[in-house]
Amino acid sequence: MTEQRVDLDERFRAELSALEPRPKRPVEQPLEGVGLTGSQCLDLFESQATSRHLDLAARRLGSTKRGYYSIGSSGHEGNATVAAALRPTDPALLHYRSGAFFVHRARQVPGLDPIRDVLLGVVAAAAEPISGGRHKVFGSKPAAVIPQTSTIASHLPRAVGLAFAIERAARLGVGCEWPSDSVVLCSFGDASANHSTAAGAINAAIHTARQGVPLPLLFVCEDNGIGISVPTPPGWIEQSYGIRLGLQYFDADGCDLLDAATTATQAVDWVREHRKPAFLHLSTVRLMGHAGSDVESAYRGPTDIAADLRRDPVTATGRLLVTSGLATPTEVIARYDDIGGRVAAMAEFVCREPKLTSAAAVTAPLAPRHPDLVQADALRRGHAVTQGDSVTLAQAINQTLAGLLDRDNDVLVFGEDVGRKGGVYGVTKGLQKQFGVRRVFDTLLDEQSVLGTALGAGLAGFVPIPEIQYLAYVHNAADQLRGEAATLSYFSQGQYRNPMVVRIAGYGYQKGFGGHFHNDNSIAALRDIPGLIIASPARADDAAAMLRTCVGAARVDGRVCVYLEPIALYHTRDLHHPGDNAWLATPSDTDHIAVGRARSYGEGTDLTIVTFANGVPTSLRVARRLSSRGIRARVLDLRWLSPLPIDDLLDHARATGRVLIADETRHTGGVSESVCAALIDAGFDGHVARVTSEDSFIPLGPAATTVLLDEPRIESAATELVTR
């Protein structure tokens, strides 16, 4: 790798030195046949050479153990022309090889120093202005570059959502930091173009535009013909995307500055004018391998490597400057060396910058908390008047969504079937008719696109409330929560946020319907996502208050919230016997439930039954039967599954000295594991037991009762625990 690094540098000098000087031409004059002036060519070379020297410096820092894993952009420097074609206010979500784009964009914004900023990331310095030393990413709030760390195109759904939401914000009068005529830029590699996330996002963009919805998004595929070590078949990108109806296609040689600049300008102008998605295929090469640790010669032949070296875009631009009479070979090399000197000097300087030194410093952007402000937001009164009747869980959610939509024009409700149908269970019934199709709307059947729309809408000033139809379906798109939503605030130090409340219908116990995909009780994949809030109400009054709290946490703190709704309790009215209506409740918009606060039922001193969701009415029935036998039990509804209500849990555990955790999720990876760990960590010295559902998928029909937690098991475990 060191040899190729030196070879790149020496090749540039050798090829430029071999050129004959040409008669000088005015730099203000456009070059023949293209719209670029000489000054613009020189400016683009500055960005390309800067990106190249940053790559070389990153390799040197890595080899001396002063820098960390870094993926270079060498061979992709033609993407600087895309930055030149855009405005510096156009939001950009960048591929990890879009270094020259980032350099050129940052150079357009007064006060930014892309050399310093990139190198601070290479050495993981705390002063790095976007991620604060948490990762080497291309990102800048002043330059409208939203940091992305994905290598598998997981940022594409967000880009689609942002392009959609910028237009929607302008139409609804919602404050948005992006100009209403912006073009959203999203770049990725040829290998990423094959990922289902990319295919789904591009399909969603075309699908949305096909319905007449404005979607000003430029997809840029930087095609170097290889994904780490796996070749992309020649012509594959054009074959895959060049013939897609509804996707305007542009093709350019990213190693030819003039062709790339001309085509990029055409593509950007087309998107800005038509407000529709387009695809720019930028043919590039990959120089110096995949990353710092990659030995390219292990899987590529010398002929292929040499062919890429001959197409080096930095050398090609240097040659253009000489042959066009814009500079002599000596002047181009001097400019190149001057850039290299500045990069090298800055590389030495940033090595002395402090690193993050504590867990508190590292995790600071993950979960901002301003509970007083959240409470104030949750209790803001709107024009809607809360009904005074007792209602079901589903009715409470519906009424609360209506109140939120009425109160704040930044709230959007959307998902599969939530509009005209009103949801599978009628939870969103009537909302679209009341608030219109721009506020409450149906999406295509793709969970990645649903969450991507929310991710983009949050960036555009909205508080999105997307619905995932069933808990089992969220696993199709878990990376949109784990890899995108949860990381954005972390890798931008809170400069960019993902305010959103994801409604998910879940858990088991549906009667006469279901099977695994409609009765899923696994939430382990959600509980370990850093910073994610998980709310799970069981009663109508809690459902209303907790939903308002989640929206407040999203709006105030930019939090990502998952709001898990127990399907089997949606329309439940009775608790102990038919017709008692004891599970109905009367929500009030003056109630507030803080994140991480539980709810207790009863004051029994013999036993605390800790539970949530369907387990709450189940445990209350068990507690009533235990009472008839002289066993006094209280029931604690956790309500919040992340973060757990530790203080309330400990208070009620110590009040009885015995804790039974009634957990409807699975024995392995279920909620009860976290509850047990919390009790142990806090030094609880009482008796603890747990009953759970089986480690099984939920079958169809009556067989479901064999694997789900039931009342007899809870009662038996409670009796055994009390009589120890």
Main pleated sheet: 7 strands, mixed
Low-confidence stretches: none
- Global morphology: elongated
* Helix-strand category: alpha/beta
Query: What is the spatial order of strands in the main beta sheet?
Result: 10-9-11-12-14-13-18
What portion of residues is helical?
Answer: 40-55%
Radius of gyration: 29 Å
Overall pLDDT: 94
Total helices: the number is 25
Q: Could you give the count of β-strands?
A: 20
Account of the 3D structure:
The structure is a single chain. The protein is 41% helix and 13% strand. The strands form 4 sheets. A 7-stranded mixed beta sheet has the order 10-9-11-12-14-13-18, sandwiched between helices. Helix 2 (38-63) runs parallel beside helix 5 (114-122), helix 2 (38-63) packs across helix 12 (329-350) and helix 22 (615-628) packs across helix 25. The N and C termini lie far apart (68 Å). The mean pLDDT is 94.
Question: How would you summarize what this structure contains?
Answer:
The chain is an alpha/beta fold and 724 residues long. Helices cover 41% and strands 13% of the residues. The chain has 25 helices and 20 strands.
Task: List descriptors.
alpha/beta; 724 residues; elongated; seven-stranded mixed sheet
Topology readout:
Elements: H1 2-17, H2 38-63, H3 80-85, E1 92-93, H4 99-107, H5 114-122, E2 145-146, H6 156-172, E3 184-189, H7 196-210, E4 217-223, E5 226-227, E6 230-231, H8 236-241, E7 248-253, H9 257-274, E8 278-283, H10 302-310, H11 313-323, H12 329-350, H13 359-363, H14 371-378, H15 393-407, E9 411-415, H16 431-435, E10 440-442, H17 447-459, E11 463-468, H18 471-474, H19 478-491, E12 500-506, H20 524-527, E13 533-535, H21 540-557, E14 560-566, E15 599-601, E16 607-611, H22 615-628, E17 633-637, E18 640-642, H23 646-656, E19 658-666, H24 671-681, E20 687-693, H25 711-722
Helix pairs in contact: 1-11, 1-12, 2-4, 2-5, 2-11, 2-12, 5-12, 6-7, 6-17, 14-21, 15-21, 17-19, 22-25
